[in-house]
Each structure stands twice: as C-alpha cells, then as structure tokens.
Sequence to fold (399 residues):
Amino acid sequence: MTSVRNIVERAAERFNGIIPLEPAWVARDFLPPGQRLGCSEDQYELGPRGGISERWLASTTEADNRVKVPDEGLSFLALDSKDRLTLREAVKEAPDLILGTGYSRTHPRGLDRLAKVFDYKFRIPFHLHQRKHHAALVGRNPKEEAYYFPEGLPMGEEPETYLGVHPSIVEEKNYEILLPYLEQWNSDLILRHSKAYKLVAGDGWHIPAGILHAPGSALTIELQEDSDVFAMLQAMAGGRVISKDLLHKDVRPEDWKKHGERIILELIDWEANGDPYFYENHHTPPVSIRKSTDGEEEWIFYNTTRFSGKKLVVKAGRSTKSRDAGVYSLFVWRGRGEFDGHKLEAGKPGSDEVIVCHSKAVEEIIVKNTGREDLILFKFFGPDVNLDVPMLKQYGKKR
Fold:
C-alpha cells in the first residue's frame, strides 16, 4: 500500500502546494435546515439524522452527533485516484509538508481550527461551549468561535442573535435565575434573560468559550477552535422541545448524577456574559487590510490568537496578489477565477475549497477573476499564524 505521506507528497507536488478538498457535509437533528447550502432536496431529509445543516471546511474535526456516521465532518483530499485520504490523516502523517516545518513543531495539534458554513431555518437554541477546564473533564477541546454573515442571502425567519445575560444578573449574583428553565425543560423563556442583536449582512461577532448565545437564522460563516463541544440550555426551538440530552452531553455522568442541572451553571463565564460593554467588546465588523481598483482584502475573524480569517474580493476581469504568513484553507463563496493557475468556481465540488500549504502560502500568488461578478474568497487560519491580527479596544473593567 502507498503510505499516507507518499500520497500527500504526490498531491502537494501535483497541485503545487494548493490541494483541492471535497465538501464535508454535516447533519444536525435539533433544528430543520435553512436549505441555502445548495444541497439536493433529499439531503435535507435524513430521518433520525435530521438534515444537512452545515458544511465544514478543511476540517480535521469529526462531528459529535447522536446518530453516528463514519467520518462525518472530516474533509477528504479531492484526488483523482483510488487513494481515499482525510485531511486529518494527511496533517498527522505529513505535518511539515502542510503546516511547514517550524509551525508543525510548535503546533503539534495540527490545523487546530474548524471553519464551517451553518444554515438553519430557525435560531439555534441558547447554548454555550465549555471552557478549557470543563472541556478537558470529558476529553474534549474548548470552543471559542466567531461569525461572519455573508451578503446576498435572505436572513431567515429569526434574524437576531441572543448573546450573554443582563448585567444585573451578574451584579446581583443571581445565577440561579436560569435554573428553573433547565429543570422544567419545556420552553424558550430562558431567552428573556438575554439581549437580542439584529444580524446585519457583512458584519460579525467574536464569542469566547463560556458565553451563552443563540445564533440567529442568517446563513453564517463560522471559524472556531477545533471542537464540537456544547451544552444546550434552551428546551424549545423551532416550535418543538429538543432532547434534554443536549444539555449535558459534554458533562461527566458522575457530575450530572451528583448535581443535576445545577452543574450547568458552573460552566458559564458569568462575568463575561454580564459585561455591560458586551457589544463593544465582541462585535467584529470587517477591518480593511488593503483596497484598490482591483479589489479588497479585509480581516473578518480577529480579536483572538486562537484563529483568524480574511475575506478577499477580486473585481470582474481584474487580478490581485496574495501573500500570507502561513498555512490556510480557502473557500470560494462567489464567482470563478484562478488561484496561482488553479481554476476556482463557487458551488463546484473539488473546485471551491483548497488547503494552501505553508510553502505556497508565503509566496506571492496571483489571483484572477475570470467571471462577470466579484470573486469572493474566504481564508481561514489556525492559531498564531497571523501575529498582526487586530484586537478590539477593551471597554470597561478588563477581565
């Protein structure tokens, strides 16, 4: 058998460091899909699995769903051969080729980030992602995340996101105000203790682990830590009561048996949730990197060293240059063009998603728009690749 490393070496040589990837579709069963991902109708109705609600991008993370499907969530290299290889295997066996020798030595966890497009008909239930300590108790990674809402699509039926809790709850240490909703598990009234923010196309948010949030129905591009850990605190969503197992799926059984619903209150970063300057400290509108008559590049994921991301727009009939600090994945959102000579086209599997190996990423790459509309590309980076990533000014008392 051909070794994994040999397959990666051949792919990197054949594609000159820009390796195409197959789409990685993920089903969820707690909400119906928004049906804006371009899937066929039968993919939105998968019985006990629910329906396709997410596309994971350059993913080395396996989905943690109630109904298990082998390799769900993992990206595969798009190779025209009998060799079937996940990106996770490729990074594990040939980290120096993909991540670069220096970066792979200092970052043994590999790409260590997960990019995705999620698409739900209704608002995702109020939930949190465990911080490092609590995630480690169940053998998982924490999950800090960030959102960007792309332009040109309907915002869905519930285009507001609930974030955090009212500051008075934290000021008065009235933490148990949420407990009855977890115990009764029959409504969405827990949202009365949070604030809703209207979703705006071309805008974004940064949400660290431990913060309560209920993402709205806008199709969302998300970048996060390499994890699928969570605790759902809202019982009713989309007009039906979801399984209470989602409340404690990532809580140790012995902790749940001993403390019951009260253990969930310990997972919440109360100070961060009750920040009176929550909007100012977590709202992340695009930050321009460079702009010309050919197009524009912006930071859309920033305010953290755990990951970062950029949006690159090239005008019709124009070309621009791209050079970055290290390995990243690229997703074609709109249009068609060429990336270092590789043909790109949005919505065409095998041509709309690539992993750009370190050795190629640090070179000057010519990006051409060969279509009649803007070519829109998203770049996703892992921890510490971009040391110049912007940080928000912190308002109020520093945590």
